[in-house]
Amino acid sequence: MQAPTPVAVEGTEQLVYEIHLTNFSHERLQLRSIQVLDEDDAVPLATFAGASLANRAYFVGSTDADGVSAPVSVAPGQRLVLYVEIACRSSRQLPRAIVHHIEYSVGNESATFEVAGGRTTVGQDVPIALAPPVGDGEWVAVHHPDWPRGHRRVFYALGGRARLPGRFAIDFVKINDHGKIAAGDPDVVSNSFGYGSPVLAVADAKVVAVRRDIVESSRVSGHPKASLDDAAGNYIVLSLGDRRFAFYEHLRPGSIRVNVGEGVKRGQVIAALGFTGESSAPHLHFHVADGSTPLGAEGIPFTFHRFVLLGHYSRIGELGSTRWEPLNSGLPATRIDEMPSANAVLHF
Ligand SMILES: [Zn+2]
Question: Rounded to the nearest whole angstrom, what is the distance from the C-alpha of residue 229 to the centroid of ligand 1?
Answer without folding.
Answer: 15
